[in-house]
Structure formats: C-alpha cells, structure tokens
Model the fold of this input.
Amino acid sequence: MGGSAPRRDHHLPAETTSFVDRRGELTQGRELLARARLVTLTGPGGVGKTRLAARIAARVRRAFPDGVRYVHLSGLHDPALVPLAVADALGLHDRSAQPPLDALVEQVRDRRLLLVVDNCEHLADACARLAAALLHGSEGVRILATSRHRLGLTEEHLLEVRPLPVPDPDGDLSAAEGYPALRLFSDRAAAVVPGFRLTPANRASVARLCRRLDGLPLAIELAAVRMRVLDVDQLLDRLDDRYRFLTTGSPAALPRHQTLRAAVAWSHDLCTVPEQTVWARLSVLPGSFDLETAEAVCADAAAPQSSRPSAGTTACVNGAEVRDGAGLLGGDVWPDGAGPPGPGACSDGARPLESTRPPGAVVLGAEGRGQLVALRSATPSALPALPGRCPDGSGAHARAVAAPTGPPGLGTDHVLEAVAGLVDKSVLCRKPGPGGVRYRLLDTLRQYGLEQLRRGAGLEEAVRRRQRDWMTRRAEECERGWFGPGQPETVARLRADRDNLRAALDFSLSTPGEALAGLRLAGTLWFHWHACGASREGLYWLDRALTAAPGPTRERARGLWVAGLLAAATRDFPRGRRHATDALALARTLGDDAEAAHAEYVIGVIRLFGDDLPGALRHFETTVARGPVPGQHLSLVGLDQVELACALGYLGEAEGAVEVCERALALCERHGEQWVRSYVLRILALAHTVRGDWHRAERHARAALRLKLAVHDVIGIALTLDLLASIAAARGDHDHAAVLLGGADRVWADIDTGRWGSHTLNSVRRDTEERAARALGREAFERAHRRGGALSLAELAGQELQEPGRPHPTEPAPATAPPHDDGTVRLTRRETEVAQLVAEGLANQQIADRLVIARRTAEGHVERILGKLGFSNRSQIAAWVTAQRCPAPTRTHPPEGIT
Done:
C-alpha cells in the first residue's frame, strides 16, 4: 500500500522575475530539439542556463503529448539516486525488483515526453548513463540538459549559452535599451529603486558596469541589488576594488569565473556578520527550507532570543570598534561603537591585526556599518596587497584582533533578521510552499557559502550534524502526528524537505560515528517511504544504514521491518520475509513489544501479497484479537484490521469483513485519520460487492478514492479504480467500466503493469474486462478503454467523483428529459470533428495534432461541446456521438468562418 499520486503537471520552475530576451538561443534550442533527442545547454555558472532551458521547454511543450518534466539535480549528490529522482519527476512509482534505471526505461518506453535535467555537472557520469539508457531504450523521449560541461555522448548536441551582449560604454548608446544586459540591470534596479530607468546620464556607467561583469546575468542581478544604497558610479568604483582584491594571484582562473566569484564575494562582503554566518550555515541545506528549519540550523542553542552579542574578535571601521563572535566561528556582533574599548589602536583607533587571529576570523570592511569582509583562513602575509595595508596585513580600512571567542550567541531573533536581510539582498530566493514561505539558496551562492563554512576546522560537520538532528526531530514529529488529521500537510512538507532529508541521511552514513543516527532517521520515515511513493529510495537508504550499523539495537529492529515492508512492495518477498523475521527475532530479544508487533504486520502482509489468503487470515485474526501493544503505531494497528478485512472479503466472508471495517472506521474517525481510513473504505466497498450491494459498494469506493487523492496515495488510487471498474461492470454500466479500467491501467503503468503479479488483483481486472468486452463488443470496449487511458488522473477522478451514481440498466429510467435535444443541438463543423475524435478516444493534444490546431484551441472546443450538450465529461460526448451515428456536418449549419 502507499505511494504518491502521479503528478502529470510536474511544473517547470516558476519565474519570479522577468526574463530578459534571448530570442536567438530560444530559436536555436527549439530547432535543435526538433532534430536531436539530446540537447545540452552549456556555459559557466550564473549565465542563465536554467532559465533558458525552462523557456525552451515551455515553447515546445505542445509537441509532447505526455508532457514536459523537470528534474532539478543541484540538491542531489549520490549518483545512485539519479534514476529515482527522474522517476519521481515523472510521477512513476515502480515496485518491481528491476534496477531503477532499467525500470525507468521500461515505464517510459512508449511515451512522448521532454525531460529537462538541470545541473548535471556534478553528476555527469550518472546523467550520461541515464541519457544513454533513455535514448537507446525509447523512441519518444527527448532530453534537454543543463551542465557546465558536455555529457560526452555521441548523440549529444550542444548549445553554448553565452553571457548577455554589452555595448561599448564609449560608443553610441542611443539604442541602449536594445541590449539585454543593460535591460536586465535596469529591470532589477527598478525593483529596489522605483522609477529607475536608463537615461543619457547613466547609460555609459551602466554599460561599463555590465561589461565589468562580463554580461553574466547572476552577477548583474547581485550588483543591481546594491542600488538600494549606492548609485551606479559608486557601484562601479566599489566593484572594481572588490574585483582587484579577489582576482589578485589567481591567473589560472577563467575570466568569467573570476567575474562571478568577484560579484558573489562582494555581495558576501556587504552582508552583516549575522547574515554571513547564516548564509554559511544555510549552505548545508541543498533544498528549499522554511524559517523554522533556518532557525534550527543557524541559531546557537545557548543564545537568549534578544541578547546582546557576546565578546569575540574586536574590529574597527573608521574608528568605531565592533566585536565579532558571530562570524563563521559562532557568536554575535557588537553594533558600531558598542564593543568595549581596548588599547593598542592604529592611527584611526583600531588595534592592529595580530598574527594569532584564528582561522576564519571576520574582519570589518570599509563599507561601514555592519558590513564585513571574511579574510578566511589566510594569514596576513598571504593576503593580496591592498593600498594602505599595515605591515601585518590588517590595512587602514579593515583591521581586527583575535580575542577569546565568547559563548555562542546567534539567537532565533538574529536568524530571522539575517534571513530577511539575505532575501533583501537577493541571496535567498523566497517562494510559497507547504505551510507558508520557503527559501532557497541558488546553487552558486550555496557553494560559496560552503567554502566559507569549510574555512573553520570542524564547522561544516557541526552544522551538518545540527541539520541532521533537526530533520530527525521533524521526522519524529511527523510520525507522531501521522495517524491524525494533518496527513496531506505532512505529505507536502516531507516532499518539500526531500533534498534536505537526503543530505541528513548522507551525512550520517558517510561520517564515522553517525551511522546509528542515520538508521534512526531512515526508520522513523517508514510512513513516508511506504505511504508517499518512495519505497525504492527508502530501501536504498535502509540498506546502507543497516550495513553501516549492524549492532543489535532498537533502531536496527525498526530498520529491518521497514526494509522488509519496502522489499515486499517491490515484490521481493523472500527478502522482505527475511528482513521481517530478523526484525521480529531482534525485537523479542530486546524486549521491544512495539517493534515486534510492527514486524508481525509485515510478515502477515507478505502472506497477503503472496496470495496466501488462508495464512494471512489466520495471522491477522491473531494480531487483531491480541489488540494493540504499548508503543505500537496506531497506523499499523489500523492496518492490521484492514488486512484482516481484506482477507475476509477476498475469501467471501462479507459479514465478517464489514464488522472489522466498522471497528477500524471508528478508530480512524476518533483521530481524524485519512490514509488508513481510505483503505478501510475500499475494503468496505469490496465487502459490499460480495454482498451484491452495488450502491453501497460504489459509495464507499468513491469515498475511498476521494481520501486517497487527498493524501496522494497512488497505489490506493489504482486499487480503488480497479474496484470501481468492477462495480460498474457488475451494475451493467459497461462503457463506464471500460473507461475506468483504461484509467486504472494508465495509473498502474506508473507502478507495475503486472499488478505485482498478484493472482487476486489480476483476476478481478480480467473479470471486469471480459464482462465489459462481452457486453460492448471488443472494438467498442477498446475505444472506451483508450478514452480512459487518455484522461489525466485529475480528469478521471474528477469525472468519477462529480457524477451521481448511475442506476442499474434494469432500474427505471429517470423521469426527467435528457440534458439535450438531438433535433436542436447546433455544433459547428469543427466542433463536430472534435466530438468525433473525442469518441475515438483521443486526448486534447492528439486532437490538436490531428487537426493541426493548438492544444488550447482543442480544449476550448471540447469545453464548448460539453456546454452545448449539457454534459460533464468526455465519455458522455462519446456516447452521444455513437447515438447520432456520426451525423453529417451539414446538419449543424455552422456559420461561415467558425472553426
């Protein structure tokens, strides 16, 4: 059981700012995709590859009936997870025992889709293997990749993404608005300085600035944010100073890399010390995060929320002392002049920099109030020379001394202020997400933050441990609340935290001494792996964790039964049974009754999955009769009852199944639970089919489907569609049964086309098909089946849940007239053509292709047909066309020119 629903609307990244014209690259990208199946956009960091790829994909999406899917790899660092990330983006939930890449290729073999794979450079080999497998194993899949380097396949076509063109600052600038680099700066500057625009007075300076930044979009955007406090000329002067400082002694660096680094480092320098500290600490989060996570990762536990900063390194700007403890070493910042005075100042009142300055000490820059320059771990003699530098390297504008670092003092108040400042400076991206606002560091800025964090010995490990501990606490909180009313929100939150969970697990399993904590986290997430469509990934992490932490612990007992459950979900029943049996033995040895009960559930469900119905019945009769044990998760208590009722139902004992379901429903309703309740309702519907009570069976099955959609349970959705198709066929509504079966088969294609090889499930499906095909005829059945398969999950479920229950064909027909009168319906010639294609089972994109019109136009025709005929779904259009015997278009008398 379990699995998140296929997301056929897996969106391309939302654009939160305007897109500067790249008309030539857009055209070239479209042309390349028209003739090549693998196109890679290459170029330096910050040049705009991701935005351009998203734009190209949006332009060509109508050419791909199965859609455009976006895979963001910057938060992924394990090559083994690349196929799983792609499968997740495609909404696939393979439960077979095949290697993930083989399973992925098999599931997309017959699809026509565009896969956008972003940020491939750090996983180039894995991405090359992925691309090769998809290109050789399918015909309709095309790949648009972004990478700083080519993937190296012979099928690969390259599109180099160049910086934006910049005019000569000393040339003719009368047409400055026509240059994308200048327009980008103007647009971003106007966002922070309302009313800013290019004028004859500032064009040359803006052009000189953009040329200094080599036309790199990210560098231009970072610089434009400074317009809030500086004018263009000041911006250019200070950037030149910063560039000279950063590029001195680095002749081997590529010029564009130097430029971007200079722009990023300058943005870093102009942050306050708490902002720099938060930037560095947040860099351990590869995915988006909420404020609560930022506070947990960045705030120092001992810091009072509104405390004054503690003692640390003393520095001076223009004679004002500032004490630093909140740099990358931890602690807080004294505002200008707030630090206690000390002897030994330079000519401007600052003490000279001592050679004993600890690595990573933070030094105030010349920009003034609260703006700091990290001198990193370099000694004074190793620093690039700056004008006016004191003999020890401190300089007149930026000097500091080492003082004992006081107790850590970065409180949550400071983190909130720092996050706000980083958003204001465009270092953090802000976007809506589950539970409210979420934030993200662009990959280039995150890598820079990691560099700063790594300059202090042990700092990265400490922050990563803090992040892991926070993710564990969040997972434990989600597990405690899982059997309750907040399941949809929990599913959404954990999906949003996926990259951060991976980072926490990877840290634990690759750092000596942390394996047991990793096993604890992987086991705590059992409900996420099982119920949210991540069984393959969960099994991957549990295999690693069980190998790394072999000791006889409660964490291992939990990890073993969870691994057994997930192995069973991939039809590896021997492995699942072995893990569950080992878990039961270990739990009993440890005297842990709760984990023993959990392991017993897995053993029973493997019997059920393996079609051992009598054995499963005996097993669950015993566990349900025993009742819950202290510490047993209520979800598994409820699932014990679900599996017992399932075994009873399939064995024909309807009364017993109904009785068990009613007890389970009462348990779920007391807690406001939805996931287990959806399974209870499905089994209740199954029991009523055994009774022959089709009305109640359909009502309960629809209620189950509604809940499964709410918690994105794709396995449950597929099972429930199978059941609804069976009910429709039993009621004599064979056309609808065929449509539902087509939709169910489409969902199962994203899971396991063989329905796990289950004799029980496959026999139900086969009986439904045989009954409907016998009544309709094979050709009509196939048409209806294709119609169902062409519907998206949302369309199919919406159609099923919005329609009232249809009467059995032997029941009296409704007394009201049908919603249309065949003699007065007026469809245009084009609408008639569209209606006939709908009746053939074509989806909107297929209709558009056939008639050579836009998909949106086809959608509009379908909507107008539904409105004219008073229908609510496509199957009704098909039935109407059949009843009309495909009348000639001349009956409709369309006005001239209407299409």
